[in-house]
Design a protein that fits this description.
heterodimer; A: 4-stranded antiparallel beta sheet; 10 strands; 0% helix; 47% strand; B: 113 residues; mainly beta; 6-stranded mixed beta sheet
Chain lengths: 113, 113
């Protein structure tokens, strides 16, 4: 079956602009995660959705970052007023349940000019 | 603080030269330890999950083992196609809803023919 799909694959934008990143999880997966991978850094957890529960936002680095998940499926990560330090690869993962292996998409490479 | 340390940062092997990658972790309560493979420009690809000390998993030329403080990824007679960055991650057992993975920075493996 289809894996986790992310779009766009690349995004270049100017400092101060807002961006939206999209994630389509594997069908039937109830858990969805967003991570950020910066050059030379490990993957950094951002936010986690499990079913209809309130999301775990403990990893979001600032209030410029937000995410939503509609209908228990597609998720959108929004970054407002982008800064150069937001440049990174944003990865989405999904899993059958909270303690099941997470399967990743290929990410969105975000570059802030 | 929960953390994961991988060593070495980079490893160069000749084809057929077996070796091991190390993943040391500190976590309040381990729910699972995960190994992933990441190719350039791609998202992490799931390899193994280990849940308890003494557990071993194998897949082709790869074998993962787990102790109470570390995990090893043994690569037997590697081939050039095994070249990738190998990521280790832990999932803590907080007893709540958190499911995020805590990643190490990875070991970049290069296998020369």
């Amino acid at each position: 079956g289809a894996g986790v799909s992310q779009s766009p694959s690349n995004k270049v934008t100017e400092k101060g602009k807002d961006v939206e990143l999209r994630c389509d999880p594997i069908s039937g997966h109830t858990a969805l995660y967003w991570y950020r991978q910066s050059l030379g850094q490990g993957l950094e957890f951002l936010i986690y959705f499990q079913g209809n529960s309130a999301p775990d936002k403990s990893g979001l680095p600032s209030d410029r970052f937000s995410a939503e998940r509609t209908g228990g499926s597609v998720s959108t990560l929004t970054i407002q007023r982008t800064q150069q330090e937001d440049s990174a690869v944003y990865l989405c993962a999904s899993s059958l349940g909270v303690y099941q292996p997470q399967h990743f998409g290929d990410g969105t490479r975000l570059s802030i000019l | 603080e929960d953390q994961v340390t991988q060593s070495p940062e980079a490893l160069r092997l000749q084809e057929g030269e077996s070796s091991s990658l190390n993943c040391s972790y500190t976590v309040s309560g381990l729910r699972g330890l995960f190994w992933y493979r990441q190719d350039p420009g791609k998202g992490p690809e799931f390899l193994f999950t280990l849940y308890s000390a003494g557990e071993e998993k194998e897949k082709e030329r790869l074998k993962a083992t787990l102790t109470k403080k570390e995990s090893f990824l043994h690569i037997t007679a590697p081939k050039p196609e095994d070249s990738a960055t190998y990521l280790c991650a832990v999932q803590a057992n907080y007893g709540g809803s958190q499911g995020n993975l805590i990643f190490g920075k990875g070991t970049k493996l290069s296998v020369k023919p």
